[in-house]
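thread from #wetlab-drylab

HS: before we spend reagent money on co-crystallization trials with 2-acetamido-2-deoxy-beta-D-glucopyranose, can we at least see a predicted complex? here's what I'd submit
DV: go for it
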Amino acid sequence: MALAARLWSFLLWGRGATPRGPWLTTGTLGSRGRCGSWRFRGSKVMGNPGTFKRGLLFSALSYLGFGTCQVTPQAAVVHATGKVEEILEQADYLYESGETEKLYQLLTQYKESEDAELLWRLARASRDIAQLSRTPEEEKKLLVYEALEYAKRALEKNESSFAAHKWYAICLSDVGDYEGIKVKIANAYIIKEHFEKAIELNPKDATSIHLMGIWCYTFAEMPWYQRRIAKMLFATPPNSTYEEALGYFHRAEQVDPNFYSKNLLLLGKTYLKLHNKKLAAFWLLRAKDYPAHTEEDKQIQTEAAQLLTGFSDKN
Ligand SMILES: *[C@@H]1O[C@H](CO)[C@@H](O)[C@H](O)[C@H]1NC(C)=O
Ligand SMILES: *[C@@H]1O[C@H](CO)[C@@H](O)[C@H](O)[C@H]1NC(C)=O
């Protein structure tokens, strides 16, 4: 059950603008293990008990043969809610099974939905399709913007949904591939805000915390010439430090130990940037030994191994 849903591309600088390790361009997050249960929890949090009760009420009413005029308005509501729950369950199953195209086909049928839970899943599915290598370039672009639209609507429908905030931030980061530098930088602030909000709403979501760490790492690492451009465009260009990034990667690990090979790698890389070889080695070893379930895990193993040889040579 290996699923590669690229979670995050690059927040700011365009494809190939700066050479980076494979982890940055193919950032994926497998659907296995705890990440799966996070999604499950996400879908379960929403209105399930209520639906259940209303569902019961409705069947009781029809069983007792209440008049149709009394039941009908209630019935419409019950039916709609019940159906959303069913679609979400089906959608989560398809997502877990890595059935990207089927999932997209299922959810686009409901693109006029007003349900935030359904809409953010549709946003995620659209961007997953965009990332398939067989999707033609022109379609990718359409899908990426479409995904952003859905995520935006999900947010409009429910500002308290952490997943809506998280996917809005991720989708906004995706459209950066097609935008000029000014828009990208402007979006970077918005992306940060929404990751922060997602974490505030669900402090147990390790992936949002990890992505916030990536955000910090990206801006801590920003080369001087890019910083200079950013400074010309904005009075206070987004910036961060490796210490700040480290805080998020550690926090993600605390919330959900060993949830993601890339978080281990980034802990190692951040310690390297901070010249702490001992701790860098500790985390890189863990990244290297992480059981590979996805393509990305394998790339991360390789990168961790390379980094480890790199500095054992110097010692
Ligand atoms: C919005 O999302 C939150 C968290 O998932 C949920 O508790 C709440 O019921 C949702 N509100 C609406 C109006 O759907
Ligand atoms: C970001 O830059 C501003 C000045 O440009 C500085 O005052 C601030 O400390 C920086 N923040 C971080 C996290 O480096």
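DV: The chain has 15 helices and two strands.
HS: ok that's useful, forwarding to the group
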